[in-house]
Amino acid sequence: MLRLLRQFPPLTHVTADDPPTILIHGDRDQAVGVEQSRLMNERLNEVKVPARLVVREGVGHAYPGWESDTAQIADWFDSRHRD
After folding, report:
1. CB 33 within 8 A of CB 61
2. How many domains does the chain have?
3. Which domain holds residue 44?
4. Would you say 78 and 49 are in contact if contact means Cβ atoms under 8 Å apart?
5. In angstroms, rounded to a whole number, what is the distance separating the alpha carbons of residues 24 and 75?
6. Residue 56: predicted pLDDT
7. Is the pLDDT of residue 83 over 80?
8. What is the mean pLDDT of residues 11-26?
9. What single string gives the DSSP state of each residue in the chain?
10. End-to-end CA distance of the chain
11. Tell me, what's the pLDDT at 42?
């Protein structure tokens, strides 16, 4: 998997046709560094895709209680469809 990610980094596939995206990332994630989400958020914004990054302080990858973010995710997507 890591080899594929190095060969085909997700950032190189971002286009203006991508859907609105919310990224939630722990600042102590050792599996995927938070910088990856920062870069993805920047790239999405560059091509005018609605994107938001939420950095959770003091937590790592798949942190306990991540399920509580589902309401925030739903609210964010709902806000993308309001007129």
Report:
1. no
2. 1
3. 2-80
4. no
5. 14
6. 94
7. no
8. 94
9. -HHHHHHS-GGGG--TTSPPEEEEEETT-SSS-HHHHHHHHHHHHHTT--EEEEEETT--TT-TTGGGGHHHHHHHHHHHT--
10. 40
11. 97
Judge whether 11 and 40 are in contact, CB under 8 Å. yes
CB–CB of 51/19 below 8 Å? no
From CA 74, how far away is CA 78, in angstroms rounded? 6
Residues in the chain: 83
In terms of DSSP bridges, do strands 51-56 and 21-26 run parallel, antiparallel, or are they unpaired?
parallel
Q: Which residues partner with 22 through β-bridges?
A: 52
Phi, psi of 31 (to 5 degrees): -80, -45
CATH of the domain at 46: 3.40.50.1820
Query: Are the beta carbons of 77 and 22 closer than 8 angstroms?
Result: yes
What is residue 5's predicted lDDT score, i.e. its pLDDT?
65
Q: And the tokens for 71?
A: 């309401």
